[in-house]
Specification:
Length: 339
């Protein structure tokens, strides 16, 4: 039996909730933060305070000490977020069930019956959600404009209800966002809203064979970045910052960076810190990956190789010897509702 249509409300734990999960209670978390400040104060004062002395100072810390001000910020941030989520849930009562989905369950949640997905959080939550919802419209809400810039969050809480109503009525504007896709020879697949990292899971050099546009070479590097238009101002920009800085140091002209929009059906790839040796080359270091082209990478690492997307290292595909990855522009697109 097919489930009834619904609205998904995607949320994330606040930093305060993260502290509670880590330390068991907020009181314990507050005490440990106070301990850290007391230890730092002792070191700066050049004293050799014992652990017991530091603990005693932490217990008797004044309420307006810096660590208390920090903890107040955690509390205020948490309070604002919880109020916004509750308000949103009340305003999304359009006759359809509203299902809250915590960030940790996004990958396993069935979005297939959802008419619209409302994401309330930071930009990273939008990027992570977009990979799992298919073509379902996404209404992205900035829960705290005083603290969050929200490049991917066009709506504030007071506007979200109207935006969702327009989606349900089929009268909304959307902006398609190109996604990247990687397919492995064992059948595994992953999408990226911003970028892929392909390399070693630690700080050792990655070993692999790179194939692009009919050329192939073995490489050793700090890994490969493949970026969409949405992610081109993020991690990939650090590569161009380094290249531009080196060019300036060498007294050469710095060329304009490649321009790519969210909608462009192409990707940018770059090899980080390629190393030249008897067994590795560096003639293929960057390029455009046009629609229907593939960047083919074969792992030469017996262990430790990984592929992850959008900076989420915990959710990765193993990339070890015998694994061949094919990176391309995905047919699937994210549909962000705009004003």
């Amino acid at each position: 039996m097919r489930s009834l249509p619904s609205i998904a409300l995607v949320t994330h734990p606040t930093r305060l909730e993260g502290l509670r999960r880590r330390w068991g209670t907020l009181g314990q978390a507050q005490f440990l933060l106070a301990m850290a400040h007391a230890q730092e104060d002792a070191q700066r004062a050049g004293t050799s305070a014992t652990k017991a002395t530091v603990s005693r100072k932490a217990r008797h810390a004044q309420v307006r000490q810096p660590q208390q001000a920090d903890f107040d910020e955690y509390r205020q941030e948490d309070s604002v977020y919880r109020q916004v989520v509750d308000q949103l849930e009340n305003e999304l009562q359009f006759g359809l069930p509203v299902k809250r989905v915590d960030r940790s369950f996004i990958a396993n949640f069935d979005f297939g019956t959802c008419e619209v997905v409302v994401v309330v959080g930071q930009d990273g939550l939008v990027a992570n959600t977009a990979k799992y919802v298919g073509n379902i419209p996404i209404v992205a809400v900035n829960p705290d404009p005083k603290r969050i810039d929200g490049v991917l969050l066009p709506f504030q809480v007071r506007e979200a209800g109207l935006a969702v109503r327009r989606v349900l009525n089929g009268k909304y504007q959307k902006r398609p966002v190109t996604l990247a896709e990687v397919n492995l020879n064992d059948g595994q697949k992953m999408l990226a809203f911003n970028d892929f990292f392909i390399g070693a899971g630690s700080h050792v050099s990655a070993r692999y064979q790179l194939e692009f546009a009919g050329r192939t070479e073995p490489q050793s590097s700090s890994g490969i970045l493949v970026s969409t238009g949405a992610g081109s101002t993020g991690l990939l920009s650090s590569v161009f910052n380094m290249a531009g800085g080196l060019a300036q140091f060498l007294g050469t002209e710095v060329e304009a960076r490649p321009a790519i929009t969210w909608e462009d059906r192409k990707l940018v790839w770059a090899v980080r810190e390629p190393f030249i040796s008897k067994r590795s080359q560096a003639s293929l270091v960057a390029g455009w990956l046009e629609e229907r082209q593939e960047l083919v990478i074969e792992s030469l690492m017996p262990d430790g190789g990984v592929i992850f997307s959008d900076g989420i290292e915990q959710d990765f595909l193993p990339f070890t010897s015998g694994t061949i990855a094919r990176v391309s522009v995905s047919e699937q697109q994210a549909n962000l509702v705009v004003q």
